[in-house]
Amino acid sequence: MDEFILIFRHEDGTKVASPEQIQIWMKQTMDWIGGIASQNKFVGGNGLLFDDARVVHHNKMVTNGPFGEIKETIGGYIMVKAESADEAAEFAKGCPVLQGEGNTVEVRKLAKRDGTH
Amino acid sequence: MEQQELLPHLFRQEYRKIVAVLCRRFGFAQVEIAEDIASDTFVTAAQTWPMNGIPQNPVAWLYNVAKNKTKNYLQRELVFEGKVAVEVKENSLELYEFEIDLSPQNINDSQLLMMFAICNPVISPEAQVGLSLRILCGFGIDEIADAFLVNKETINKRLFRAREKLREHQIKIELPTQSEIDERLEMVLTTIYLLFNEGYYSSNKNQIIRKELCLEAMRLCYMLIENESTNKPPANALLALMCFHTSRIDARLNRNGEIILYDEQDSSLWNAELISRGGYFLNCSTTGDVLSKYHLEASIAFWNTQQADTKEKWENILQLYNGLLQIEYSPVAALNRTYALSKANGKPEAIAVAEKLNLTDNHFYFALLGELYRGIDNTKAKQNFQQALALARTSPEKQAIQRKLNNL
Q1: Do B333 and A38 touch (CB under 8 A)?
Q2: B389 CB neighbour count, 10 Å cutoff
Q3: How far apart are CA B357 and CA B95, in angstroms?
Q4: Is the Cβ pair A38, B325 closer than 8 Å?
Q5: How far is CA B70 from its chain centroid?
Q6: Are A6 and A107 in contact (CB under 8 A)?
Q7: What was the pLDDT predicted at B83?
Q8: Do residue A38 and residue B358 have CB atoms under 8 angstroms apart?
Q9: Cα gap B261→B252, rounded to integer Å
């Protein structure tokens, strides 16, 4: 069993949702994670807040927020246990973030830090 | 109280107090001596009370006898050491201070310290529970053997090894420092919860023993809450959880000691006072910023005391299980979560999740699948109930599943 990280990418991080909509996504996200956890395959995860974000550029210039010319941003991640990248991708299909057109979930295997990576 | 009832009652109440105080005084190295002196005190009572009558203040009498026996023991030791050992070490003088402090304050403190000494990971969880029953709850070896459904020999060996281990590791009888307390408290709470579960979920048919284990676990937890430095949110949450569970203890077993399923329980047998106390402690548990598994389990148990089948109830239970499973997976939580999911989000979604649970050696798993398919695909419901029936071990479980099959 390997560990994978599922990274939620929002196409446009500047879009603002209503509190009601956020509440619905919240429940869907919790139910989605609960389903993975009930297979004993949830490792951890977190949401990333949009408030008070900074981007540090190549020239060490600091700008507010992850948004600028690039609107795409990361909204959160979870880590799961899975037999294969395909199984991890199956988990990712249930992620409510995908309801937003243009949004993606990136599936990446975590390095094991056992000297082979 | 008649004499034949009084002495066992006092034994249960006072034995553990005397042992705790003496242990604190002697250190864990001499735990057996502390237990011997305490037992001996009750033997003396059993011998003299029938002849001389019950003393006016039986507890004070017991404390006095325990003090005298301790004094005699220490004096004998001193004489022995004085004669045999070349010199009595000066720093051992404190040990031979004869006065034993059996004040309520010292009794309480000592019991609390003993709790932390016993709930130590150098001994196995079941040894911690056994030793807790013996030393903190004053259970006899017979009673512990009954509770665990093993013979006395096994218990004696288990406790003997546990005492040895604690001695070898020179476990000190002291409260952990403030910086360690959360971590150590977690172990104490784990042991208390195990002790509780031993009573609540055990296959033991002796209802009296089961209830007493539950009450003892609650008593130990309450001791933590009474003490300022251990009165932490998770301890309050655990006590709330145990109150809510215990409120249903009379309703969940029939006369033959067999489990009655939640749906079929007579809710007039639920104990309203315990439910309200559970609510009080659950409230007390919300002061910190830590959400322990006890908080989640207590909140689930609270919703289970609400019999009305509302949308709100099942949505709350579902979210609590979502949180609980992220902290700690267990098959039971996974199954219960899936049931709550069916109530909150509908059966089709729950079926899709249930099919992936991978608990095919568990009859509750197939019973759940049967329940979920009922009314949606009765052929599949029947297959699953039959599979559950084949895997079920006890006759009440088989009967409950058979009823479901008949109702299809």
Answers
A1: yes
A2: 20
A3: 59
A4: yes
A5: 31
A6: yes
A7: 62
A8: no
A9: 7
CATH code for the domain in which residue A93 is found: 3.30.70.1060
Distances (CA, A) of B185 to B118, B224, B237, B285: 12, 9, 13, 15
For chain A, how many helices (H) and strands (E)?
Answer: 2, 6
Per the CB < 8 Å rule, is B325 touching A42? yes
Nearest to B336 by CA among B348, B312, B320: B320
CA separation for the pair B322, B369 (Å, rounded) = 19
Q: Does A40 touch chain B (CB under 8 A)?
A: yes
**How far is residue B136's CA from residue B186's CA, in Å, rounded to a whole number?**
18
| Among B111-125, B162-176, B291-305, the range of highest mean pLDDT | B291-305
What tokens does A10 get?
A: 């929002």
Minimal Cβ distance to B334: which of A27, A30, A38: A38
What is this structure's pTM? 0.85
The two structure tokens encoding residue B116:
């932390």
Contact A27 B321 (CB under 8 A): no
Domain ranges, residue A94 = 2-11+40-109
Q: Do A31 and B322 touch (CB under 8 A)?
A: yes
Tokens linked to B127: 């040894």
State the total domains in chain B.
Answer: 1
Q: Which of B253, B278, B247, B257 is nearest to B265 (CA)?
A: B253
B263: exposed, middle or buried (Cβ count in 10 Å: 0-12, 13-18, 19+) = exposed
Full residue range of the structural domain in which residue B77 is found: 1-102
Q: What is the mean pLDDT of residues B253-274?
A: 78
**Residue B42 placed within a domain:** yes
Reported ipTM: the value is 0.88
Asked if A38 reaches chain B (Cβ–Cβ under 8 Å), the answer is yes
Q: Which residue of A has its CA nearest to B335?
A: A38
Task: Please count the structural domains in chain A.
Answer: 1
Residue A96 sits at the vertex; the CA angle it makes with A91 and A100, to the nearest 5 degrees, is: 125
Written as one letter, the residue type at A71 is K
Whether residue A62 is contained in a domain is answered as: yes
B262 found inside a domain: no
- For the ranges B42-51, B255-264, B312-321, the lowest mean pLDDT is seen at B255-264
**Contact A46/B at CB under 8 A:** no
Per-residue burial over B312-339, b if 16 or more Cβ lie within 10 Å, else e, is ebbbbbbbbbbbbbbeeeebebbbbbbb
What distance in Å separates the CA atoms of residue B62 and residue B55, rounded to the nearest whole number? Answer: 9
Q: Which residue has the higher pLDDT, B371 or B213?
A: B371
Residue B52 structure tokens? 């001389």
What counts of helices (H) and strands (E) characterise chain B? 18, 0
